[in-house]
Each structure stands twice: as structure tokens, then as C-alpha cells.
């Protein structure tokens, strides 16, 4: 059901060429997004110091073949923070064993709860690509919440049992932080202990992502409509 700078071997010319390519791609990413509404200006699209250059290169490596995104250029006000973020989110995205569909389902629900437009547009599409049905994604988008998370029900509201367990856990982590024992226990029927830790850190990580996106209006998406499920 579920699907998600080259090494420099000669001292001068290749190095200059690599730096030119990096600078060009970073500049293209920077100028593609207006900064009028972002609450701080984006960081420079090129490294300002030799110390910062490897950070830019590591982030560019993870993003390729895409250029840097607005979130990168917001975080690069502090290259050390951007570097740690890149390492952490990179591990969350590529070095966990939670089924891709469940992972993207959880991230999509975080986006809805936190009104993070860009996060929803990207990750809801990835959830569908990974095998989550459009009907399920419409529920993710539409379902209201209570102080305990998903609307209480005697059934799974049309979700598969593993999807419902993940969404209940996501809601409680995101809304009230505290997770009831019964909600946490449901995950054990579908995920290993390792995967439960991975899911928990994924939900926490994308709560962090959405809070930065929304608080600073990174990408100038606040107030825009989220993509409709039929258009994912």
C-alpha cells in the first residue's frame, strides 16, 4: 500500500566551477520568492564566509536536483542552526522505517492542524503518491478535533486501523502534547518500538517545521488556500 557537490579533485578550476554552479542555483532559488511579506528578509543566497560555505553545500546536496527552498534561506541566517536542521530533517526523511504512507499521513495532519499551507501542499501529495486514498486525505483535511484529538468515535471514521491509530497519536501530540495511554498503545499493533520512536520524532519535527513556516510566513503562504485533495 505504501510507496518518498561533487568532490573536488583538482585544486583551482573545478573548485571555481562548483562554486559558480552552487551560487547560481542558490541565487535562482532566492530570487524566485518575493520577500515583501516574510517577517524577516531571507538570508543571502550565497555563503558570506568560508566557514558557512560547507553548510550551504550540504544543504544543496540534500535538496538536489532542486534548488534551495525559502525555508533554507530563512534558517541560513544562522548557518549552524541551518546545518543542524538539515541533518535532523534529512534523517527523519530518509533514515526511518515507518511506512511512507503513514509518515506522510501524519505530516499532512500536522499541516492541517497548524495551518501550514506549504507543508500540506507538499506532503499531502506525497501521501497520495505513497498509497493513501484521496477519501482518507479528504478526511484528514476536514475532520475537526476535540481537546483530545480526533473526534471521538466508536469506529475508525473510514480510515484503515493503522491510519486511524497514527492520526489519533498525531492529533494528541500536536494539540495537547500529552498522549493518552490507550492512544499510544494502539500503535503497538502496527509499529515496532523503533518505529514508534521514529513516528514520534517525525510528528515532533514537522510540528517544528510548520511553526517556523507559519510564524515567519516563510514562502509567503499564510492566508493562502491549501491545495484541494482532488488536485493533489
TrEMBL record:
<dbReference type="GO" id="GO:0051920">
    <property type="term" value="F:peroxiredoxin activity"/>
</dbReference>
<dbReference type="Pfam" id="PF02627">
    <property type="entry name" value="CMD"/>
</dbReference>
<protein>
    <submittedName>
        <fullName>4-carboxymuconolactone decarboxylase-like protein</fullName>
    </submittedName>
</protein>
<dbReference type="InterPro" id="IPR003779">
    <property type="entry name" value="CMD-like"/>
</dbReference>
<dbReference type="InterPro" id="IPR029032">
    <property type="entry name" value="AhpD-like"/>
</dbReference>
<feature type="domain" description="Carboxymuconolactone decarboxylase-like">
    <location>
        <begin position="79"/>
        <end position="143"/>
    </location>
</feature>
Amino acid at each position: 500500500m505504501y510507496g518518498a557537490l561533487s568532490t573536488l579533485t583538482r585544486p583551482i578550476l573545478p573548485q571555481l566551477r562548483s562554486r559558480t554552479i552552487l551560487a547560481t542555483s542558490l541565487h535562482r532559488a532566492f530570487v524566485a520568492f518575493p520577500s515583501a511579506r516574510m517577517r524577516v528578509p531571507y538570508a543571502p543566497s550565497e555563503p558570506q564566509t568560508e566557514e558557512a560555505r560547507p553548510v550551504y553545500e550540504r544543504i544543496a546536496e540534500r535538496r538536489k536536483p532542486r534548488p534551495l527552498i525559502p525555508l533554507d534561506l530563512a534558517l541560513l541566517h544562522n548557518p549552524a542552526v541551518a546545518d543542524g536542521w538539515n541533518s535532523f530533517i534529512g534523517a527523519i526523511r530518509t533514515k526511518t522505517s515507518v511506512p511512507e504512507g503513514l509518515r506522510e499521513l501524519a505530516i499532512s495532519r500536522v499541516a492541517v492542524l497548524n495551518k501550514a499551507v506549504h507543508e500540506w501542499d507538499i506532503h499531502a501529495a506525497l501521501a497520495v503518491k505513497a498509497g493513501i486514498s484521496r477519501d482518507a486525505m479528504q478526511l484528514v483535511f476536514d475532520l475537526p478535533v476535540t481537546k483530545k484529538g480526533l473526534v471521538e468515535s466508536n469506529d475508525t471514521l473510514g480510515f484503515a486501523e493503522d491510519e486511524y491509530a497514527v492520526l489519533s497519536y498525531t492529533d494528541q501530540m500536536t494539540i495537547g502534547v500529552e498522549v493518552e495511554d490507550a492512544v499510544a498503545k494502539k500503535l503497538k499493533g502496527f509499529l515496532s518500538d523503533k518505529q514508534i520512536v521514529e513516528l514520534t520524532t517525525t510528528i515532533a519535527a514537522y510540528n517544528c517545521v510548520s511553526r517556523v513556516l507559519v510564524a515567519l510566513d516563510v514562502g509567503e503562504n499564510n492566508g493562502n488556500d491549501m491545495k484541494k485533495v482532488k488536485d493533489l
